[in-house]
């Protein structure tokens, strides 16, 4: 039996949170432990509950877009972040995923996708809603972990291995090993090939 995911629902509309809570209550292995209507409440609830998953609307008070995701990722390294928003712009999808989101759902999409996204996140896979029209180009044909996506985006933007280590808070040796493993996994041989691969996925390249 799988351990129940502790979920925090973050949306500034109470009716949306109630609908989500009702939907998630029908799913096995999912336990909504808290709700939040602002950035401050999110931080408080994450600290209080030790949640595994944050379902996040980016259009909430106190949230400066994808920068908030970066800040969460820096302080809650094991937290899974599932964006649920009305914004379906490909640029926003790409920016959110690069910032560290694990999944991206649109409020215009099929409700069943929430279950599919949570299942993917449990397996350390990313998920982007079909409704964004971005899924085919944003998801690697070879499944990548969140850390591998971070490394891919950083290399593609021209970040050096020492700077990658600094950005991710890891040793240069570990950063180099991550880079080597990623290149081996994707059968890529140099930075130019990595950049081309990242651009095919819609990630920004420097």
From TrEMBL:
Molecular function terms, GO-annotated: DNA binding
This protein's UniProt keywords: DNA-binding, Phosphoprotein
Domain HTH luxR-type stretches: 137-202
Highest taxon of source: Bacteria
Response regulatory domain sequence ranges: 6-122
UniProt cross-references to Pfam families, sorted A to Z: GerE, Response_reg
Tagged with keyword Cytoplasm: no
Residues carrying 4-aspartylphosphate: 57
Signal peptide limits: none
Entry protein name: DNA-binding response regulator
Organism expressing this protein natively: Devosia yakushimensis
């Amino acid at each position: 039996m799988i351990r129940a995911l502790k979920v925090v629902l973050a949306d500034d509309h109470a009716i949306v949170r109630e609908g989500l809570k009702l939907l998630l209550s029908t799913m096995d292995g999912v336990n909504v432990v808290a709700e939040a209507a602002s950035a401050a409440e999110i931080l408080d609830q994450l600290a209080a509950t030790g949640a595994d998953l944050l379902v996040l609307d980016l259009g909430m008070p106190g949230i400066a877009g994808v920068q908030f995701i970066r800040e969460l990722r820096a302080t809650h390294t094991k937290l899974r972040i599932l964006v649920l928003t009305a914004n379906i712009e490909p640029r926003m999808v790409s920016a959110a995923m690069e910032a560290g989101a694990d999944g991206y759902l649109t409020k215009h999409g099929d409700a069943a996708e929430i279950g599919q996204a949570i299942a993917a996140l449990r397996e350390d896979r990313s998920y982007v809603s079909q409704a964004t029209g971005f899924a085919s180009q944003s998801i690697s044909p070879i499944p990548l972990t969140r850390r591998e996506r971070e490394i891919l985006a950083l290399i593609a933007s021209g970040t050096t291995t020492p700077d990658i280590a600094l950005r991710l808070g890891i040793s240069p040796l570990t950063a180099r090993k991550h880079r080597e493993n990623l290149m081996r996994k994707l059968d890529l041989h140099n930075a130019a090939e990595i950049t081309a691969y990242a651009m095919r996925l819609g990630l920004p390249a420097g």
